[in-house]
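Box S1 | Example of a co-folding query
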Amino acid sequence: MFEHDTKTWRLTVAATGQTLPAPAGQTLLRSLLDAGVAWPASCRNGTCRTCIGWVEEGRARHGIEWPGLLPEEKAQGAVLPCVAYPENDVCLGGPGLKP
Ligand code: FES
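Box S1 (continued) | Returned holo structure for FE2/S2 (inorganic) cluster
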């Protein structure tokens, strides 16, 4: 969706401390899978919530207008990595909702 943006950010998996490259024009899920991280996913279109996690640090934006998140979940930093793109270095919590 943002293929014109060639910047590559750093994605950190909070649970393991693993860091990996996260190109701005690629979803966080794609970056996770490309690095061999076994992150759960199903629909890959922002509907099923299987991939849900949360942004601990940094910023990510959803590439679709209505990702399957409640407003209060969004306010707590919840993110659907299958349709979310990094806007800077991101530390990703999950998988799952923030405890
Ligand atoms: S895989 Fe279904 S919402 Fe991300």
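Helices lie at 28-34, 71-75. The beta strands are 8-13, 19-23, 53-57, 60-62, 78-79, 84-86, 90-93.
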